[in-house]
């Protein structure tokens, strides 16, 4: 199990940041990532041999988050997402960028998080999200265009350079 502990220490922050940007909820991201790592630990023999175990954890966390929202939506008929006027932040992102990312659609946030923060290619991102690589490119293009509009050309170019 030492290799799982090493994997956890090396990847937990990346997984958290990616899921947080994708879902926009700090507590939800913490819970989803914790659950995903717990599942990875339970199935470590097969997860360890996965071509991209970090992607497996991130995808599991995103699925856990979606399942939570589905259950909550059935329990409460309220709007989902962060409270209006409250902009969550991520240590690695400045406040303006975090606020702009939170205005993107859920799918665009997921693509930005996986392609830019997790540094995955379009094929892997598409497999994780269940969409084609071409659709990944479309969502990324639209997200970057929206970010350019919200932040100005220089900030979006700087973010695009991280790909």
Q: What is the oligomer described by this structure? A: single chain
Task: Give the CATH class.
Answer: Mainly Alpha
Q: Might you state the CATH topology name?
A: Butyryl-CoA Dehydrogenase, subunit A, domain 3
End-to-end distance: 33 Å
- Rounded to an integer in angstroms, the radius of gyration calculated over CA atoms is 16 Å
* Arithmetic mean of pLDDT: 79
Shape: globular
Protein name: RNA polymerase sigma24 factor
Family: Belongs to the sigma-70 factor family. ECF subfamily.
Keywords: DNA-binding, Sigma factor, Transcription, Transcription regulation
Domain HTH luxR-type: 101-159
Structural notes for this entry:
GO terms for molecular function: DNA binding; sigma factor activity. It comes from Catellatospora citrea. This is RNA polymerase sigma24 factor. This protein has a single domain, classed as Butyryl-CoA Dehydrogenase, subunit A, domain 3 (Up-down Bundle), CATH 1.20.140. Helices cover 74% and strands 0% of the residues. It has 9 helices and no strands. It has helices at residues 2-23, 26-42, 44-47, 53-75, 95-102, 106-117, 122-129, 133-151, 153-160. Helix 1 runs antiparallel to helix 2. The longest helix is centred in the middle third of the chain and has 23 residues, at 53-75. Mean pLDDT is 79; it is low at 69-92.
């Amino acid at each position: 199990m030492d290799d799982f502990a090493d994997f956890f220490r090396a990847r937990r922050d990346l997984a958290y940041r990616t899921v947080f940007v994708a879902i926009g909820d700090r507590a939800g991201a913490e819970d989803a990532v914790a659950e995903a790592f717990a599942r990875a630990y339970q199935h470590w023999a097969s997860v360890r041999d996965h071509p991209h175990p970090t992607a497996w954890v991130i995808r599991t966390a995103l699925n856990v988050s979606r399942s939570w929202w589905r259950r909550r939506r059935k329990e409460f008929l309220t709007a989902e997402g962060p409270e209006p006027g409250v902009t969550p932040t991520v240590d690695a992102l400045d406040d303006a960028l975090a606020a702009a990312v939170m205005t993107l659609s859920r799918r665009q946030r997921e693509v930005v998080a996986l392609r830019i923060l997790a540094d995955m290619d379009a094929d892997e991102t598409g497999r994780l999200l269940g969409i084609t690589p071409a659709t990944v490119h479309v969502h990324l293009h639209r997200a970057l265009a929206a970010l350019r509009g919200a932040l100005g050309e220089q900030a979006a170019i700087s973010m695009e350079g991280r790909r």
